[in-house]
Design goal:
The protein is of the alpha/beta class. The protein is built from seven helices and seven strands; from the N terminus they run βαβαβαβαβαβααβ. α1 packs across α7, α3 runs parallel beside α4 and α4 packs parallel to α5. The chain is globular, with a radius of gyration of 17 Å. The protein binds NADP nicotinamide-adenine-dinucleotide phosphate. NADP nicotinamide-adenine-dinucleotide phosphate (NAP) binds next to α1 and α4. The site of NADP nicotinamide-adenine-dinucleotide phosphate has 29 residues, from α1 and α4.
Length: 251
């Protein structure tokens, strides 16, 4: 699949591993200038060693002020991918501790709002027609067991998509969510039976490959989606179309 991002500049958060790393690499290979933000230096070091044109930014998006400081001198960008996110610990909704809820919301929700504010303001000032893609989850659309903070964070992120799309539309800045089901990345490799449980509920009978999330993201960043904004895009092999969705991730 080929996209042309020559002359474009995009910031990808959570670019050290998994989906974010794959998006950063695909954009770089499509001619884009990529700013890759992540919180662990070693993963950024290997990314830049493999792809020297990528510009690393070491930051933890849960640190609001520090992230602002690290992004404030960035040039105006054409795109942002809010991908940084963590799943957190498995816990029943009634037992989930406040600290765990705050920790997940700080990264998955407030971190994305902070980056979107910064990047969008620069787009508005420079009169750039931009695109922001929030990597949400099917868990933001339908409840699933054991991960209350994560699911709430992704539902909130989907409203961030709609709210920013509403307010940025007049500036020709588009905002969309991509909502994967299970994708094989370091985030999910420790979850027991996840693939088995979810594939049994998925019409297509399998989990997603990382590139099957990357392609929709590149489409949403590109001009091929120039009238698409404020939308959620499940990448789930039909999982959400199945009313029997019921799976306990913790088992
Ligand atoms: N994999 C799935 O099945 C799946 C399904 C639906 C949605 N998603 C979403 O897709 C996104 C990427 O997931 P993934 O599976 O690729 O995860 P991953 O393999 O764990 O990679 C996440 C990357 O984000 C970085 N990161 C985490 N917290 C950060 C923070 N506070 N500040 C900066 N960087 C941070 C991580 O850094 P470290 O190297 O320090 O950990 C890592 O490089 C997440 O938002 C996730 O919720 C994933």
């Amino acid at each position: 699949m080929s996209f042309d991002f020559n002359g474009k500049k995009v910031l990808v958060t959570g670019a050290g591993k998994g989906i974010g790393r794959a998006i950063a690499i695909a954009l770089n290979e499509a001619g884009c200038k990529v700013y890759a933000l992540s919180r662990t230096k070693s993963t950024l070091d290997t990314l830049v060693a493999e792809h020297p044109k990528i510009v690393p930014i070491l930051a933890d998006v849960s640190n609001w002020d520090d992230t602002r400081r690290k992004l404030e001198d960035l040039e105006p960008l054409n795109g942002l991918v809010n991908n940084a996110g963590i799943l957190g610990e498995s816990c029943s909704a009634v037992d989930c501790p406040r600290d765990e809820i705050i920790k997940i919301l700080d990264i998955n929700l407030l971190g994305a709002i902070n980056c979107a504010q910064l990047v969008a303001k620069k787009m508005i000032d420079a009169k750039v027609k931009g695109s922001i893609v929030n990597i949400s989850s099917v868990a933001g659309i339908g409840a699933c067991y054991s991960y209350l903070p994560y699911n709430v964070s992704k539902a909130g992120l989907d409203m961030v998509t709609k709210q920013f799309a509403l307010e940025l539309g007049p500036y020709q800045i588009r905002v969309n969510s991509v909502n994967p089901a299970t994708v094989v990345t370091p985030m999910v490799t420790n979850l027991k039976n996840t693939a088995k449980g979810l594939t049994s509920q998925t019409p297509m009978g399998r989990v997603a490959k990382v590139e099957e999330v990357v392609w929709p993201v590149l489409y949403l960043l590109s001009d091929y989606s120039s009238m698409v904004t404020g939308q959620l895009h499940p990448v789930d092999g039909g999982l959400l179309s199945n009313i029997a969705v019921k799976y306990d991730f913790s088992k």
